[in-house]
Amino acid sequence: MRVAYPDFRLGSVLATSFTGTLSERHGNAVERIPTPHRLVDWLAVNGLAVDACTTAQLDLARELRESIHAAATAAALQEALPASAVQVINDCSAQGRAAALLTSEGKRRWRLSSASCVEDALSVIAADAISIIAGERDGKLALCASQTCQAAFFDTSRSRTRKWCDMNTCGNRQKKARFNANQRKNLRSVE
Ligand SMILES: [Zn+2]
């Protein structure tokens, strides 16, 4: 059975889905992994099921998240990568012992070294971040055009002209704002 967690953004890119667990970074920020339990939920949804998570592991996860955000933002702006962020990403990548397994249906599945190993799950996320920041994957890092968001996202559209991190949130809000502005303009011209 699939469990739906409606307020997690299920982007197709693991690393930027993870950075999206803190949304509206330049507005009223929303923390979507406020407790260890919520991180466990998020990891399960993203194919990295762990049994439990300590507050220290949650802190480490958030440190990794902010480091990915900082490095991905710098990469999107073609600026130098912050050394401390690179260090955290590398440490997280190196300390995990996750193995990629091929299922008989031809899908990739992650096997963590133990059911409690949040560090293994974080290493998978760190390695995913490395692959997009290093330009190993087909796509381009960009920043969301919403002023209250500005999230780094991985644009895999053919034209590389995607403007928003997520069409269902930022993209939709922008569309609505434009629509309302047009409505007001039309009303004024009727008056
Ligand atoms: Zn956005």
Automatic annotation (TrEMBL):
Residues 141-181 form the Zinc finger CGNR domain. It comes from Streptomyces viridochromogenes (strain DSM 40736 / JCM 4977 / BCRC 1201 / Tue 494). SUPFAM superfamilies: Jann2411-like (SSF160904). Pfam families: ABATE, zf-CGNR. InterPro entries: ABATE, ABATE_dom_sf, Znf_CGNR. It comes from the Bacteria. This is Zinc finger CGNR domain-containing protein.
